[in-house]
Design goal:
Low-confidence stretches: 273-290
Number of helices: 9
Shape: globular
Helix content: 25-40%
Strand content: 25-35%
Distance between the termini: 25 Å
Number of strands: 11
Largest sheet: 11 strands, mixed
Mean pLDDT: 93
Order of helices and strands: EHEHEHHHEEEHEHEHHEEE
Length: 290
């Protein structure tokens, strides 16, 4: 039986988004503060996922051996480095989060049975690469605070209380929602970007965070006048709001994860479809609540 194991590693490094063929003004317009000389740094956290059969010793691989491979091929070379200069791959394609993950895969694949490389630039931005050419996944994490009441508009208070419990109380209650938006795209072979990160963050802010933050969802968001604002319905609505704006940026919305509390979260996986809405039967997304 196949088993996936994960090994964590970390390194600290700096990088700069700068293309010499562009002028100073063009680089600033394209990359913003990330173009500043001499660059900026991060404490990167790396997760390497490996697949295989469990052997007679109860292991897929000896993780001590895996640790040494990762250290030799990746972390010992990248730790306390200036990424633009450390590997030749970054001379042609900038060391963005998604491109670093891709190149790490290429460095480790000859020696390890990889299924995923996940690289956190910081807790609110990370990339995943799974060996599919130039295709990568980029996730932005953000948050908003809002109140809601779980009550179907056509049911009585008693009926709603039977279904939703305390969440049906007339004056509602609030959450600090954490939102993760994952997009899928092709890594540009020069900029290293699968999507314009600044534009993606702006789209999320404009379509979700600003309209949702510090609201009573049932009353302030027209969509929820008749739709019960459960975590599932909120996540589904957010996926509908973001799909077209992200496509306009040249990427595809892959997943929306909404964390309502440490105990409750849900995920919408947006299926590829010609429809503009992910809620049609043909392209109904997979939803999982934890």
């Amino acid at each position: 039986m196949q088993c996936i194991v994960n090994r964590r590693a970390q390194f600290s490094a700096s990088h700069r988004y700068w293309l010499p063929e562009l002028s100073l003004a063009e680089n600033i317009e394209k990359f913003g503060a990330c173009s500043r000389f001499p660059g900026h740094g991060h404490n990167y956290v790396l997760f390497i996922s490996l697949a295989g059969e469990v052997d007679e010793y109860g292991m897929v691989l000896n993780l001590s051996d895996v640790k040494h491979v990762i250290k030799k091929e990746v972390t010992s070379q990248l730790d306390f480095s200036y990424l633009n200069d450390v590997w030749t791959e970054f001379e042609e394609t900038l060391p963005t989060t998604e491109n670093i993950a891709r190149v790490i895969w290429q460095r480790l694949a000859p020696q390890l049975p990889l299924v995923r490389v996940q690289l956190f630039e910081h807790p609110e931005l990370w990339a995943e690469y799974m060996g599919n050419g130039m295709e990568a996944y980029l996730t932005v994490s953000t948050h908003f605070s809002a109140a809601h009441r779980l009550a179907h508009p056509r049911l009585s208070l008693e009926e709603n209380t039977e279904i939703y419990g305390k969440c049906a109380r007339p004056n509602g209650h609030g959450h600090n929602y954490h939102l993760e938006v994952t997009v899928k795209g092709e890594i540009d072979d020069r900029t290293g970007m699968s999507v314009d990160l600044g534009a993606l963050q702006t789209a999320i802010a404009d379509y979700v965070i600003e309209p949702f933050d510090h609201t009573f969802l049932n009353k302030d968001i027209a969509y929820f006048a008749e739709i019960v604002p459960t975590a599932e319905n909120i996540a589904l609505y957010i996926s509908n709001l973001l799909r077209s704006p992200i496509e306009e940026l040249g990427a595809k919305l892959y997943k929306v994860k909404l964390i309502e509390s440490p105990n409750n979260s849900c995920e919408i996986y947006v299926a590829d479809s010609d429809s503009n809405s992910v809620s049609t039967k043909k392209s109904q997304p997979v939803l999982a609540k934890v």
